[in-house]
Structures are given as C-alpha cells and as structure tokens.
Amino acid sequence: xxxxxxxxxxxxxxxxxxxYGRRREPGRRRPLLLAxxxxxxxxxxxxxxxxxxxxxxxxxxxxxxxxxxxxxxSRVVVDFRxxxxxxxxxxxxxxxxxxxxxEVGHVEATVSAEPGxxxxxxxxxxxxxxxxxxxxxxxxxxxx
Length: 144
What we know:
Order of helices and strands: HEEEEEE
Organism: Micromonospora humi
Strand content: 35-45%
Keywords: Membrane, Transmembrane, Transmembrane helix
InterPro entries: DUF4307
Helix content: 10-25%
Strand order of the largest sheet: 1-2-5
CATH architecture of the domain at 62-142: Sandwich
CATH class of the domain at 62-142: Mainly Beta
Number of strands: 6
Protein name: DUF4307 domain-containing protein
Oligomer: single chain
Largest sheet: 3 strands, antiparallel
Pfam families: DUF4307
Shape: elongated
C-alpha cells in the first residue's frame, strides 16, 4: 500500500523523496510583458527597414503615356513622359501591339532630365514587323 499525506490531493502523484530532484512551482505567466517585448522588437525592425529603404531603395521611375501617332505598316511614334530623380536618367521599354494584342515591335529608349528637373518628355519611334494598333510604355528603370 502506498503512502499518502493528508495535504496532497488524491489525484496528484506521490514521488519518492529525493529521487527526482526538487519540483518547481509553476511560474507566473507574463503575457503583457511578452506582448510589449514583441511590439518593441517589431517597431525597431520596421524603423531599420524604413531607414535602409530610404538610403538604398530604388527611387521611383514612372513612365506615362501621352500619345501615339504616326502609325504606318512599319512603325508607330510614341510620346511619353518619365518621372526620375532630379537630374537623373531612365531607360524605358516601349512596345507596339497589333489589333489582336500581339506584340509587333519594341524598343528601349534612354532619357535624361536636365539638372534639377524631375520630368522628361520624349518622343520615340518604335519599328514594327506588322501594322500596329497601339504604342505604349511598359516600364521605366534606372539607366545603366
């Protein structure tokens, strides 16, 4: 028959004394402290990411379509505007598509802004392999 004490609950196991070491008391949980530490760490990581993006991130190179004219069987002339960092330059990909949506021509155009200016307006001819229906600016990126 096993030994039971009056102070021990009936469903609690009784271990032989000294055999398994000292049992720890359950610690107090501190969910508020844990949430505060997580919030501080996330805020610091966010600030670090914002600083690095500001320092090393790509500035915006935005190409805007103004018009397309001069459509013939072998070309289209695209007028476009590019927003670059002040005095910067960009390489833009222009393309021409036929009436059924197929690409019939593309060209890369490099444009440069005057010192202190952020916008460049340019006109570029896009040679095509068939009659184009539309000319467009696909994307602009830093020149180089």
